[in-house]
Amino acid sequence: MDLRQRGSVSVASTRTKTWNGSPEEHELQQMNTLSDIEGQVPPPANQDAFSNEGGAEIQYKTRAWWHTGVLMLAENVSLGVLALPQALAILGIVPGLLCICFLGLIATYTGWLIGEFKLVFPQVQSFPDCGELIAGRIGREVMSLGSILVLIFISGAHILTFAVAMNALTDHDTCSIAFAVVDLIVCLALGLPWTYKNVSKLSILSCASIIIAVFIALIGIGITKLDAGNILAVRPSVSFVKSLGPVLNIILAYTGHIAFVSFQSELEGPREFKKALFFKQGIAITFYMTISAVIYFYGGPLVTSPALGSAIPVVTKIAFDFAIPTIIIAGVVNGSLACKYIYIRMWKGTNVVHESLPTV
């Protein structure tokens, strides 16, 4: 029985039964009915966290599909693309490009499954909600801890990258921790808006930033021509352990799925999530394959990871200048996801979710 059939059976079973008791007893009977279907755990709520927004001060379901597509690009596509040319240098250009394409298609399919799951169970707003459907309270708590830690670590990685970039740009004696604290404050300020629609506006700047930074790096490596044209279709005698690192870098370049449920929850039409997904994945796969192949062609087997290290120092500094927005905004998006989950979990089912100045 697939997800749609399971959802339709649960709805039909609750509608066909008559009940003469209290509303509370009726709701309990509905939850028990859901639990009887293949051991399915009842959802945490009958409706999603953002339902009944008419006249609310804060309205969440306001994003068009392209807002979400751009937001997904900003959350997923960042400086990690500059690690892919070295993946091609280790694996060879043919298996490397095949891995980028194949793993991108797998990421697209799994993202589509997440979107379909959300349509069947509209009450889920995050991965922890999905964990509760699968394994009850234990599943929710395990997924909560895992999701928050992952998002914190990703945000921390971007804060660290900002500190490294500022050290490279300024050649100053200022401690890296000071630069990291500055970025932390900026991320906190930019992550304050309640809805992702405001963050998606920043995502447009992030996308432009990474495109410009990568093309500057590409031009710099093309001018340097470390070992231009010295490429291999397939690199022979590559051990499993050595080839695993590049493949994991490619997988990491597509790992934005933790945000998909939350992003879909704020769409005007949740069914349009597929448009946003295909928009994002189409651009990501094409961008990854093109940039990695061109940089590998000009850098050859000497290309570094990240590829900025293969350019002359002046070009590296210029590229870092333009990469600053995407470094900051990618951290903002992931931090905002973690904060939004905590906020919704605290106030889900209350009017506080839709109030501009929540009070206890």
Automatic annotation (TrEMBL):
Record's bilayer topology term: Multi-pass membrane protein
**Region of interest (Disordered), residue spans:** 1-27
Instruction: Identify one Pfam family in the record.
Output: Aa_trans
Kindly list the residue ranges recorded as spanning the membrane: 64-84, 90-114, 142-165, 177-195, 202-223, 243-265, 277-298, 318-339
The source's superkingdom equals Eukaryota
Q: Which UniProt keywords apply?
A: Membrane, Transmembrane, Transmembrane helix
Q: What is its subcellular localisation?
A: Membrane
Which molecular function terms from Gene Ontology are attached?
Answer: L-amino acid transmembrane transporter activity
Record's GO cellular component terms: membrane
Ranges of biased composition (kind: Polar residues): 7-21
Query: Which family would the database say this protein is a member of?
Result: Belongs to the amino acid/polyamine transporter 2 family.
Protein name, as recorded = Amino acid transporter transmembrane domain-containing protein
